[in-house]
Amino acid sequence: MTDSMSPNASDEKPGVPGFPSWPAVYLFVVGVFVLIVAFLSILPLIAR
Amino acid sequence: MRPLDYLVLVASMLGIAAYGVWRSRNRATLEGYVSGQKDVGWGTIGLSVMATQASAVTFLSTPGQGFESGMGFVQNYFGLPFALIIVAAIFLPLYRSSGVFTAYEYLGKRFDGKTRLLGASLFLLQRGFASGITIYAPAIVLSTVMGWDLDLTILGTGILTIIYTAVGGNDAVNITQKYQMAVIFVGMVTAFVILFLKLPAEVSAGDALALAAGFDKLNAVVYSTDINQRYTIWSGVFGGIFLSLSYFGTDQSQVQRYLSGTSVRESRLGLMFNAVMKIPMQFFILLLGVMLFVFYQFAPAPVFFDHSTWERHVNAEGGAYLRTYEAAYAEKMDAKRAAIRSWLDARSRNDAAATERKLNDIRTAHAAAQNVRAEAKAALVQRDPAVKTKDSDYVFITFILEQLPVGLVGLLIAVIFAAALSSLSAEMSALGTTTSIDIYHHVINPKSSDQQSLLVSKIATAGWGVVGILFALFANVVENLVEAINILGSLFYGTILGLFLVAFFLRGVRGNAVFWGAVIAQAGVLICYANLSIGYLWYNLIGCGGCVLLSVIIQSFIRPSKPTRFSPTTS
């Protein structure tokens, strides 16, 4: 059976150390986004 | 370009294509051809999704955008991480669990055949034309700058892509995209390093950034709620989610990329790789443009960056007076350079008041130089009203040709070709797959064998490549082609997204309701387009909102039908 037919395919764990579930991965992505926006917001001030 | 540059360019492009064909040989089944061996890991998926989105225009126009307007354009990508999370969490598992080859096949399973056909047709119409611009846009810039024949450039790009995509299918696209992205990364990083090395010795990286900040080029995030502002964090996040969801969630050229993963996990990680890396990548490309701006504050800058067009007019009868603009611009730039040196001196002395005063002097000198540039462009238009005065697309290519050493020029031209080939091959593969699966196998010959569908898929892939080439060859008859294609996309994208949002989230709506809802919404979009003069991006919202609302309203008038065997939440 390929995973495309597996009933639990979408429940697969991320398998990334430190990330026990997919919501944790998504939260990390949002966190990185917030950090990037914060960095870009203060970039002109840092540069001067 | 020198012979070594041509060697680097031809060897890298042909070598990658040949390797892709060799690695993807023996794809003897339809599934192997359109989905690959399903042995693709998250790294390849991540690069493949990135390569499909980043066309040659990204590497020609985006540095020019940074040069001209600064970093604000990066906000356009602020909705992308959120859209990719939605695609990874909701769209992807539904596509995978339903075992589809194309996104439109899912519409058929969820609704009915006619809705599937409608979604596939809207995609083919829009993406078929867009593939022409994918070939045409870099060809017109490169042929102008390099003196190459435009038709031969279009034919060379198109035919090479047709060969490896039609022969190797989805796996060839995945494999070549990985190496094409490697060429792009190496080339762009090299250009960035050389750009910094070419700055005057007394100008540090900190000075360069401070100078860019002084010109407001580093203002990347705008919190204004003024809707007339072109790029703000709000339009970037909310408009960006909508656009990215349409593109990554329903456009087969992207859906096919992440459906080729070994598992849902690999596909999800590939999408999350893009969710994290895309904004930094665009930031980096825009920063390259901003640093080009700094570079040309010290190096001699042309008054008009489209050198070929400028020289053609200068050398034409009665065009010699245009040289006066060159001299005037050089004079104003000298004055600005002197102001910048004074500013650097004040900055090195940590004299804050003098630094601010000198910065104002630089801005005044900059405005004077910009006035001369504007006058030069106006003079060009006076001579030829059809001339395109937006020369920012030529800034990066001018730097490549005039400043990079032999060999690296070939590498950077290879970057532009790699980007063109990677997005074009994904488009052609998606168009061929959709034609074979959703049109031929679904409508024309439902009893077709696997071998027949495979053959049709290969022919359709090559056929759409030929359509793209023909469109590119005759593209110059259409005025402002890029905008025309963007308008065309906006006219259809909204309705397609509406179809999928109803499919995923409104379980009570059935095929007839969504089909007629989509048809009426699409007609409404076209009527609005013919009668209103609103910004074309709004048609995405009108199409999507109209399709969803009308589907619900129509369904409420239709007697509830028997539940379909297929549930959108089938797992």
Structure explained in plain terms:
- With 48 residues, chain A is mostly helical.
- Chain A has a domain at 19-47.
- Chain A has one helix at residues 22-47.
- The termini of chain A are far apart.
- The model of chain A is unreliable at 1-8 (pLDDT under 50).
- Chain B is mostly helical.
- Chain B folds into three domains: 3-295 and 402-477, Sodium/glucose cotransporter (Up-down Bundle); 314-386; 478-571, no CATH class.
- In chain B, helix 5 (80-97) runs antiparallel to helix 12, helix 11 (252-258) crosses helix 17 (408-444) and helix 19 runs antiparallel to helix 20 (511-531).
- Chain B is globular.
- The model of chain B has no long low-confidence stretch (mean pLDDT 89).
- Chains A and B meet through helix 1 of A and helix 5, helix 9 and helix 12 of B.
Q: What would the CATH topology of the largest domain in chain B be?
A: Sodium/glucose cotransporter
How many DSSP helices of chain A?
A: 1
Main β sheet profile of chain A: none
The helix/strand order of chain A is H
Q: Name the CATH homologous superfamily of the largest domain in chain B.
A: Sodium/glucose cotransporter
Number of helices of chain B: 21
Tell me the helix content of chain A.
40-55%
The end-to-end distance of chain A, rounded to whole angstroms, is: 59 Å
Overall CATH architecture of the largest domain in chain B: Up-down Bundle
Sheet with most strands of chain B: none
State which percent range the strand residues of chain A make up.
under 5%
Tell me how many strands of chain B there are: 0
Q: What oligomerization state is this entry in?
A: heterodimer
Task: Let me know the average pLDDT of chain B.
Answer: 89
Share in helix of chain B: over 70%
Return the structural class of chain A: mainly alpha
CATH class of the largest domain in chain B: Mainly Alpha
Q: In total, how many beta strands of chain A?
A: 0
Low-confidence sequence ranges of chain A: 1-8
